[in-house]
Design brief:
This protein is mainly alpha-helical. Helices cover about 70% and strands about 0% of the residues.
Length: about 170
């Protein structure tokens, strides 16, 4: 194990954190576009992108939970769905924040001594093991929502959040 392995794993974990953030934004944008068709019928998609591009990951998760509440409140227990959203995405958010804001601060010693490299690699593997499934799930949600919402113009769209698929 070398410092190059640490940088490689950091890059992989950062990559999946970026995918997660992008897909959570895409979910919010898809939902916004479909649920507010009249508002955006004559506006470009740029206004939707502008609305969500400045959101943090935490804000995107909150937005998804709000959308769930509006769309599904009469059909299912929204508290349970919100809990599932938190179960899937909040740990990934915490690991992402750890990765970006604290990992190298706490592992700065690996530049001077290789003794800390195994510990750093173990932490990066743990971080990646939490972020990757959340990013993968968000990507699958995006694909499914895109397919489902493609019929929205004909009134056939139905919101779906397949939260059980993440388990």
């Amino acid at each position: 194990m070398t410092i190059d392995d640490v940088y490689r794993l950091f890059g992989e974990a950062s990559h999946w954190a970026s995918i997660l953030e992008e897909q959570l934004g895409n979910i919010c944008m898809l939902n916004e576009r479909v649920m507010n068709q009249d508002k955006y019928e004559h506006e470009s998609a740029k206004s939707i992108v502008e609305k969500f591009q400045k959101f943090t990951i935490g804000a995107l998760i909150t937005e998804i939970k709000k959308a769930l509440g509006k769309e599904l409140e009469s059909k299912v227990d929204t508290k349970e769905l919100e809990s599932k959203v938190d179960t899937i995405f909040r740990p990934a958010l915490e690991k992402r924040n750890r990765l970006i804001h604290g990992f190298f601060i706490d592992h700065h010693d690996i530049l001077k001594s290789y003794d800390g490299i195994p510990k750093a690699i173990a932490e990066l593997n743990e971080i990646k093991s939490i972020i990757f499934p959340a990013a993968d799930f968000a990507t699958k949600m995006c694909v499914e929502l895109t397919e489902l919402y493609s019929g929205a113009r004909n009134g056939a769209a139905q919101p779906i959040i397949p939260l059980d698929a993440a388990r």
